[in-house]
Design goal:
Helix content is about 50%, strand content about 15%. It is of the alpha+beta class. The structure holds flavin-adenine dinucleotide.
Length: about 400
Amino acid sequence: MSQDLYQAPDYFQLDELLTEEHILVRDAAREWVKREVSPIIEKAAQDAKFPTSIVSGLAEIGAFGPYIPEEYGGAGLDQMAYGLIMQEIERGDSGVRSTASVQSSLVMYPIWKFGSEAQKQKYLPKLASGEFLGCFGLTEPDFGSNPGGMVTNIKDMGDHYVLNGAKMWISNSPFADIAVVWAKNEQGRIKGLIVERGMKGFSTPETHNKWSLRASATGELIFDNVKIPKENILPNKDGLGAPLLCLDSARYGIAWGAIGAAMDCYDTALRYAKERVQFDKPIAGYQLQQKKLAEMITEITKAQLLTWRLGTLRNEDKATSAQISMAKRNNVEMAINIAREARQILGAMGITGEYSIMRHMMNLESVITYEGTHDIHLLITGMDITGLPAFK
Ligand SMILES: Cc1cc2nc3c(=O)[nH]c(=O)nc-3n(C[C@H](O)[C@H](O)[C@H](O)COP(=O)(O)OP(=O)(O)OC[C@H]3O[C@@H](n4cnc5c(N)ncnc54)[C@H](O)[C@@H]3O)c2cc1C
């Protein structure tokens, strides 16, 4: 890939709304992405290999459990800082951000919120340092948008449980040390449990041939009579509401992350348009290209403001799931549209790995589908404003 010349756009001086700590944390992540992610990410995506070399760096910038208390190894930051870190990581690559999102919001968050003190002590510090990587198993082959229909199940055997079933499309599964898995008990109630690599009957085959999120490993979780010790059940919350709370936290991070991908595409296209000469002048001087660039920065600015406000609400513990859905949906669509327009500004160069745009565009095809599809988030907004669920 060409040298990373990224300059973050801040058209409405939103930095003035951030604290010194936010800017410090954000800039550290920004510098790290430039130094450690940009030089290696194109090859990792082309090779379809998760770059394990960046795991310790992700831990150092606080990307694993940014808001988890320091006593458990987290960074003890607020929601705005968490969002800013996700924005910067996804500026580099949505697959790398996915790894950080899963680790923080889908593995550490449920252990922190619903786990026993012993589970928190055992797993959180190792997850925060990157010694352990985790994954989150909710989606099944026959239950994606409708996870409540899951058939993965646990049976109480007195001194332990037995887990059977399969999960699909699971980020990080091929190398995860632990999996937070959602399964139904004999009463049909959804429970969260921690499955450890090495447990007999537990396997994690990788899913190949993805055109999207190629630098993030995706796979299955297969449970064939896996013996689960009772102390591995998350004791403090059950029902579908438990995984949905995890998804709220991850979707909030995605709303920020998508802005990062959009900012990178816009910045790349702006620089290219100013340098690329056709018909004796830079293409940035033509109205058609200016329309594209002007609309991009307008949409990025609107998304930045929406997400900053959402961060404020999250800090006050007032953000609703529907507000998070709206921000995730809006920002991912905004980013994918910007990636497509930016790609065109680069002409033929836009389809090469010399620039990040095509990789962002392909990554965003997953981001618009996972953690609730674009349609489902619209239906959540529809339900919120009308009071009528249109899912069924
Ligand atoms: C790269 C990647 C990584 C992922 N990582 C994880 C992970 O770590 N953990 C995990 O648990 N899952 C993960 N997922 C799964 C992801 O969350 C699901 O793919 C997603 O929830 C959609 O489910 P589905 O693919 O089965 O689509 P389906 O639910 O089958 O939907 C297919 C289409 O039908 C539409 N649709 C569905 N229901 C309705 C309805 N009621 N009304 C109108 N339209 C509807 C959808 O919007 C979609 O367009 C990942 C997916 C990808 C692609």
